[in-house]
Amino acid sequence: MSHWPDKYVIGLTGNIATGKSVVRKMLEHLGAYSIDADSLANRAMAKGAPAYQPVVDIFGSWILDTGKEIDRKKLGQLVFGAPDALRQLEEIVHPYVGQAIDLLVKRSKHDVIVIEAIKLLEGDLASKCDSIWVANASRSLQLTRLMEKQKLSEADAKQRIQAQGAQKDKIDAANIVINNTGSFEDLWKQVVAGWGEIALDSTDNAATEIVRETKRGDFSVQRGHPRNSEGIAELMTRLGKIKMDAGDVMAAFGEKAFFLLQMDGKLVGLAGWQVENLVTRTTDLYINGDISSDEGLKALVEEIEKASKSLQSEASLLFLNTQFAAEEAVLKNLGYEKRTPRSLGIQAWQEAAEEKPDTESTLFFKQLRIDRVLRPI
C-alpha cells in the first residue's frame, strides 16, 4: 500500500526528454490526478517562497533576473555542470516539494494519483508509491527533443542528458516501462494497457467519471477522448481556419484536454485546456456561428472551472480571439476580467500567461482558490 491511505499512487520517472509529461497527461485523461514535482520545485524557488532565500544565499544574487526572481536558465547552467552544486540545490528544495506533494495528495478527491519526478528513485518518494512507471526513449531522441522543443544548443542538451542518472537503473526499478519512441497512438495504447494493470476497482469508476456528460441548458458538455480526434479535427479545421487531422489532435492530447459542446447530439463547439503547475490555460475555443455563442461560452467555461477545481487549480486563464473577447459582459458575470500577464503578480501565473497561443488573443483571468500551495511567506 502507498504512503497515503485510500490512494493508489503511481510514481512516474525517466530521464530528461523521454516524454514523462505526455504520459502523465494521458493518465489524467484516464482519471488520475497528476502532480509535476519539477514544477513544484520551481514554485518553491519563487520570490518570497520558502526556498528562494536559501538558494540565493548559497549561489549568489547573480542568479537573479531584473525582477529579482531566480533565473532558472542561469541556475541550470551552473548546477547541471557541477554535481555538488546540484546536490546542494536539491537538499534545499526537495523537502518543500515533499511537503507540497503530501498536501496535494491528501487534498485530492481522486483515487489514483500520478507523481512525475525526475529524481523519484534517488529519494524516499519511490517508497511511498504503489507502482513505478518509467518513460523511455533513445539518447538521440532525447537530444532532438531538447534542441527542438526547449531550444537548447547541442552542447547544453548533451550536458543536461549527461547530468542524469543512468536510464537503465530506472528501467530496472520499473513495474511498467512506457517506450516513447513511436506515434502518439502507440504511446496511448501502452498507457491504457498499463492503466488496465492497476489492481484497483475504483479506477474503473475514475475512468467512467472522466467521460461524463453534463447538461447545461440546451447544450450538453462532455470530456473529449482520443477516439473523438477525427470530429475534433474537423471542427477545428472548419471554424479555426487551420489544417488539423486526427493525428494532430492525438498529439494535442499529450498536452491538453478537450471539452466537447453538443446540441441535439451534434458537435457544435469545443474548448482545449490544460492544468499545469496548478494553473488552467484555455487556448482553443470554437463554437458554431449559428448558435448562441454566449450560452455556449458559458457552458464550456463552467465545465472547465469545475474540472480545474477538482485538479486544485489556483487560477484560470482564458486566451480568447476577437469573437469571444467581445463577450465581456458574459465573462464578467462568470468572474473574469481582462488582464496583462505582468499584472497577475504570482510568478507561476505570469509564466503561464506569457505562454500565449500563436494566434492573436486577449487574456481573461479569474482566481479559483485563495489557499495556494507553496505560497509566499
TrEMBL record:
Enzyme Commission identifier(s): 2.7.1.24
Root EC class: transferase
GO molecular function, one term: ATP binding
Domain of life: Bacteria
Alphabetized Pfam families for the sequence: CoaE (PF01121)
Catalytic activity: 3'-dephospho-CoA + ATP = ADP + CoA + H(+)
Localisation: Cytoplasm
Classification via SUPFAM superfamilies: P-loop containing nucleoside triphosphate hydrolases
GO cellular component: a single term: cytoplasm
TM region(s), chain numbering: none
Pathway terms, separated by semicolons: Cofactor biosynthesis; coenzyme A biosynthesis; CoA from (R)-pantothenate: step 5/5
Keyword ATP-binding attached: yes
Binding site for ATP: 17-22
Primary role: Catalyzes the phosphorylation of the 3'-hydroxyl group of dephosphocoenzyme A to form coenzyme A.
PANTHER family: BIFUNCTIONAL COENZYME A SYNTHASE-RELATED, DEPHOSPHO-COA KINASE-RELATED
Similarity comment: family membership: Belongs to the CoaE family.
Stated name of the protein: Dephospho-CoA kinase
